[in-house]
Amino acid sequence: MSTTRSPSPKAPATRPGAWRDATLLLVGLGSSRTDAPAASFERHAQSLRECGLFAGVRAGCILGDPPARGIFDRVETEEAYVVPLLMSEGPLARKAIPALIRAATAQAGAAAPRFKQARPVGVDPEIAALALDRALGACADAGLDPRATTLVLAAHGSTQSGESRRATLRQIVLARRSARFKAVAPAFLDEEPFVRNIVRDHAPPAVVASLFAADGPHAMQDVPDALRGHAGFVDAGPVGIDPRIVGIVLARIAACDRSSPRADATKATARS
To answer: Could you tell me the pLDDT band of residue 9, with boundaries at 50, 70 and 90?
Structure first.
């Protein structure tokens, strides 16, 4: 799929050089059904290692292997950034990851690093720009005129927490401001309007960019299944597999530093 933006934007450090003395931990949901999300997280981790900005970079999954709890073990730096490869500040970001931090801190005792949890990549405004660019590339590949095409941003949604919906609607607002598409609309797996009804709810042509952090079953099965066999509907894939996520990870860390330079996630989650 063609794209028009730089493949790996770099976010400036707010404390130049300081990240080289810290460990970066990337935590995503993963999957118990496929290792594709873990492989995607590891590709991002490897790209960040090659940047040379950190003392070490590790990636782990809440579901599947490698388990997230393992990447918190034996962190040898005094400081460690934790960046959730998640699309919203739902229960995983607010509860599951802080629980991992507390457990690692208790296990390490006095040797524990200062854990600083950034906000998830999915809340970054650049997600909208990334989704737009992937959708524009998909339109170009399919010979569609974006000005006559509806862009659908597909996300998880939830009947238990409103965070996924709120994060998606914020990206919708940003995408609409670009005026690149005829219309921009949301669709969700677990709440209305449903992904399974995209073809019913929208007339072709339409392109779907998935706000998922990896190429797991939701992005690679649920969304394609909803579009399969219907002409004029194009799947731009999940934003989380794009290599430009690396730049968003760095932006989240920089924002974390600006928000609370000495924040300790063992006491409170850093927000920015």
So the answer is: very low
Where along the chain do its domains lie?
18-122+243-259, 125-241
Taken as a whole, the chain contains a residue count of 272
Q: What is the mean pLDDT of the chain?
A: 91
Q: Which amino acid, residue 92?
A: L
Q: How far apart are CA 119 and CA 116, in angstroms?
A: 10
- Look up the CATH number of domain 18-122+243-259: 3.40.50.1400
pLDDT at position 5: 44
3 state SS of 15: coil
CA 113/CA 108 separation, integer angstroms: 8
Asked whether the whole model's pTM tops 0.70, one would answer yes
- Helix residue ranges, H only, the chain: 36-51, 68-71, 91, 97-108, 126-142, 163-177, 198-201, 217, 223-227, 245-259
